[in-house]
Amino acid sequence: MHPSADEIEPEPKQPIFNLHWIVPVIIGIMAFVHFLRVYVLSDAANYQAIVAYAFIPQRYSNLEIWQLSPFAAYWSPLTYSLLHADWTHVIMNSFWLLAFGGVTARRLGAFRFVILFVIGALGGAALHYIFHGNDISPMIGASASVSACMGAAIRLPAFSENNFKGDLKSVRIRSLIEALTNRQAVTFIAVWFGINLLFGTGVVDITGNGNSIAWEAHIGGFVAGFFLLGLIDDMFKNGTSQTT
């Protein structure tokens, strides 16, 4: 006898975003920082916050800018990732962090995910500086860190297999060669780089107001996440290596 429709247990629905608690915590921090800047700080205090915490490339060669906030040279390559231009900027970065940070955080755990987020920000700041070392314009936003999550995610087999079920802590990380010879991973990389170059170089203005997009920072973060995921996994974990 075949079971009736009532006796067949439906498969549990998978959530759109598979979240580890560290992801909404980071999103909450970004939103809280922006809330303070918009609704609490005065215009003068907000300006000082930008000077102190945004990444300003010319800070390292212009003594006057350096003296405005001397210690900012040490922390701004990271703290810029917690500042955003407006709520749309916050929402967009939060959305992509949910999408790609969800799976990488489930694989890495909270501590290593924070390391990935930090390395993505530093990688983005580094490449942005290489191209814009004399630029006085401040760079803000978590896009480089989000891009690091994207780069890391495509080294997980679950990314191309669309299989995010179960415990991802034991999922093996693809080697660089494996990732670079996987059709879906390579296609994603090519499309991602193409979109960043198209929008970032101003061919298409998605901001609608002429604001520039720091596409170099996106690429710096992506490259850092893609190439350093295995190192992060090996250096900050207990037990045997899960990379190949």
Order of helices and strands: HHHHHHHHHHH
What proportion of the residues is helical, as a percent range?
55-70%
| Overall outline | globular
Question: CATH top level?
Answer: Mainly Alpha
Mean pLDDT: 85
Q: How far apart are the termini?
A: 48 Å
List unreliable stretches of 5+ residues: 203-210, 239-244
Number of helices: 11
Structural class: mainly alpha
**Structural Rg:** 20 Å
Strand content: under 5%
The CATH superfamily name is Rhomboid-like
Overview of the molecule:
- The protein is an all-alpha fold.
- The protein has a single domain, classed as Rhomboid-like (Rhomboid-like fold, Up-down Bundle), CATH 1.20.1540.
- 61% of the residues lie in helices and 0% in strands.
- The chain is built from eleven helices and no strands.
- It has helices spanning 22-40, 43-53, 63-68, 72-79, 87-108, 110-131, 143-153, 157-161, 176-180, 183-200, 215-235.
- Helix 1 packs antiparallel against helix 5 (87-108).
- The longest helix is centred in the middle third of the chain and has 22 residues, at 87-108.
- The protein is globular, with a radius of gyration of 20 Å.
- The model is unreliable at 203-210 and 239-244 (pLDDT under 50).
